Amino acid sequence: MTRAHERFLEFKRLRNAEPVQLDPHTTGLVVIDMQEYFLNPESPFSRLAEGRVPGVLDYFQSRAHTVVVQTLRRLLDVFRAHGLRVVYTTVASERSDGTDLMPIFQRMNAVAREQIGEAFIPPRTDPWARIVAGLEPCADELVVNKTTYGTFNSTGFDHTLRSLGIETLVIGGVVTNACVETTARDAADRGYQVILVDDAWAAYSPEIHEATLVSFMGSFGRVRTADEVLALLERALPVALAAQH
């Protein structure tokens, strides 16, 4: 590690350590792309990736199942218990042929159809596109489907969040350095306070996860663990409830 990088890390960590204030009534939990096709080794997505580089998804899918799902479950339980906002995103095509996907995804689908006979990214109505068991949305929780990496770029996500009165996003999901990071950075550009939950997201390697964390923190928002987020909410909730009376 160079001295320049050491200095940069120290600079970022100092910025990330700055205090965060949460108003529970304007805070929303955003669960990004926790879909069957990303996390199931039998999916076309997984089979294509494994066919190219065996074992490439081992770390990612293991962390998603053993860490991320459990962490998101904890966050969901607290948000739901207090009636706080929860919004899900998915990435899938609206058209059965996938022609509404962005060009990068369409090319990926073309390769997948040629090599394994199935689409890499499924249509929204395909069972592979559903949210994984244990994290299913409740009846009143919105699911915003996108056809790009970033949620803001192909949906009315900004309008949805502002209509719900959400100003702070607590974000978890997959993949750390793709859909999660793109959505989080876009949110920061639009004026939202963004908190990435370190133990609620997964990448294909710990190195790319760490690189994303370092790049994001301080500049675009804050990185916190689930325990830290829940502690912030626990302190803020009595104040918010008292203000209602």
Number of distinct helices:
9
Find the structural class using helix and strand composition. alpha/beta
Percent range of helical residues: 40-55%
- The H/E string reads HEHHHEHEHEHEHEH
User: How far apart lie the N and C ends?
Assistant: 54 Å
Spans where pLDDT lies below 50 across 5 or more residues: none
State the shape: globular
In angstroms, what is the radius of gyration? 18 Å
Strand order across the biggest sheet?
A: 3-2-1-4-5-6
Share in β-strands:
15-25%
What is the number of strand segments?
6
Please describe the biggest sheet, giving its number of strands, its sense, and whether it closes into a barrel.
6 strands, parallel
Provide mean pLDDT, rounded: 95
Labels describing this entry:
245 residues; alpha/beta; six-stranded parallel sheet; 47% helix; globular
Please summarize what this structure is:
This protein is α/β, with parallel strands linked by helices and 245 residues long. Helix content is 47%, strand content 16%.
Outline the structure in words.
This protein has 245 residues and is of the alpha/beta class. Helices cover 47% and strands 16% of the residues. It contains 9 helices and 6 strands. Strands 3-2-1-4-5-6 form a 6-stranded parallel sheet. Helix 7 links the parallel strand 4 and strand 5. Helix 7 runs parallel beside helix 8. The longest helix is centred in the N-terminal third of the chain and has 24 residues. The chain is globular and about 55 Å long. The model has no long low-confidence stretch (mean pLDDT 95).
